[in-house]
Amino acid sequence: MGFPKLETERLQLRELTLLDAETMFRYFSKESVIRYFGMDSFENIEQAKTTIQTFKNRYEEGSVFRWGIEKKGTGQLIGTCGFHLINHHHKRAEIGYELDDTYWGQGYASEALQAILAYGFETLQLIRIAAVVYVENKASQKLLSKAGFQEEGLLRKHMIQNGVAHDTILYSLLKEEWKK
Fold this sequence. Notes:
- By secondary structure, this protein is α+β, with helices and mostly antiparallel strands.
- The protein has helices spanning 21-28, 31-34, 45-61, 108-123, 138-146, and strands spanning 6-7, 11-15, 65-71, 77-87, 92-99, 128-134, 150-161, 164-174.
- The chain contains five helices and eight strands, in the order ββαααβββαβαββ.
- It is globular and about 40 Å long.
- It is an enzyme of class 2 (transferase).
């Protein structure tokens, strides 16, 4: 079948390849980008290569879809987005996304989010898509609320980053709420 490609007005969502490792390493090394990601910043390009390979392996297992977000016509990777913790039996998944901070505030995350929501609800036939967001990550909370996600509650000391446990907020969007 091959990895699904998604298109929006300004973006192409495509499979990540090892050719993306250098760009991914560059922005995953930025504290601003990974501050709320739930992992420490990359220290070498091998970590980017391993992450890309892990996304590929988990896609083949059916538990992860992680797209590279590329600006149309440039070939430039500006971030990634997708589903993890996919449960096909219960028709649910969690989403995640990050952008190189150079591209923040330009609507790219919202555009990519709408594309993967459509894929999740229409193609994967999910009935629930969730997101877990650091309490401090106001921009992501705003993005999810704007997309129709509902806040479900606080998950105390749910994510560890740089050795520190952080509270997160659980959001969800149900298929019947989508596009309302």
